[in-house]
Amino acid sequence: MRLIQSVIIIMFLGIFSCVSAKENKLVVAVGKDDYITSGPRVNLGRYPLNANIFESLTTFDEQFRLRPCLAESWEYKGNKTWRFHLKKGVKFHDGSLLDAAAVRLSLENQAKSGTLLFDFVRIDDSLKDSIDITTTEENLILPYILSHPYLGIVKPAKIPVGTGPFCFVRYERDQYLEVGKNENYPGEKAKTDRIIFRFISDNSSRLMAFESGEADILADVPYETVPSLKENRQYAIHLSAVGSYTGIMLSTAGELKDKNIRKAIAMSLDRNAINRALWQGTERFARRFLRLLFWENMRN
């Protein structure tokens, strides 16, 4: 049995009335601080909590359709090579211009850290406004891979410097990450001046911070609290269509080598009862590991 897992974010509906225009900020209560802040795998502000400091060459919309981001277009040139045409005039938060050399350096640094998610033979930045990536093997899904937040383009600096709608302000380990609005962002401007992500690993403490008004948004919501939160009309509950899954896997050893026995076990499970007991009915059943919208499931 496999269930598509939905991440729940609960928003306090009074946020826009209770926060003054002078101090236009949001406080988001999130779970454990999983950032890596030293060594080659530094990912502060990027992953797993994406604070919108960085942008990738490509991105996805809410329906998981591939969209341009730092690259305005791309094409496959053959011979295992993709060409990505960069948007012109994009600047890093420090005012320096994004160009092919900056993209190459960022991707090469990620390759050295082992976090690039694909292997390449070379990255050619000689065209300045375009970058050619030649992979070790034929890779027809490279534009999709490059949409991952982990592959956001980073300018080497002592603090996180990207091109996104928010800039790094300050960070305290296991306490908070604060970002501020990028006033020079060329795309749609952020609707709030500041976002403070408060790290609260304990579920009960995180919920209390939200209910007491210390946080405007509650993320990483414990499933067992969903029914009571639904009863409060001050809150809006949002379930995002993410692609993670939870599964009960059967062994294929011993008597379970018999496919019919495994089928019988699967058919005997009351999926609705499991969903209600463990996830408060918030999950959706899947016939495969990945959602149909994902490129891995595309027929062509």
Give the gist of this structure.
The protein is an alpha+beta fold and about 300 residues long.
Description:
- With 300 residues, the protein is α+β, with helices and mostly antiparallel strands.
- It folds into 2 domains: 1-31 and 200-300, no CATH class; 38-165, Periplasmic binding protein-like II (D-Maltodextrin-Binding Protein, domain 2, 3-Layer(aba) Sandwich).
- 19% of the residues lie in helices and 26% in strands.
- It has 7 helices and 16 strands.
- It has helices at 15-18, 100-113, 142-145, 203-211, 226-231, 259-268, 271-279; strands at 2-4, 7-12, 25-30, 58-60, 66-68, 71-78, 81-86, 120-124, 130-135, 166-172, 176-181, 194-199, 217-218, 235-240, 245-247, 284-286.
- The chain has a 7-stranded mixed β-sheet. A 4-stranded antiparallel β-sheet has the order 6-7-9-8, with helices on one face.
- A hairpin with a 5-residue loop joins β4 and β5 (66-68).
- It is globular, with a radius of gyration of 22 Å.
- Mean pLDDT is 84; it is low at 1-21 and 296-300.
Chart the SSEs and their pairings:
Blueprint: E1 2-4, E2 7-12, H1 15-18, E3 25-30, E4 58-60, E5 66-68, E6 71-78, E7 81-86, H2 100-113, E8 120-124, E9 130-135, H3 142-145, E10 166-172, E11 176-181, E12 194-199, H4 203-211, E13 217-218, H5 226-231, E14 235-240, E15 245-247, H6 259-268, H7 271-279, E16 284-286
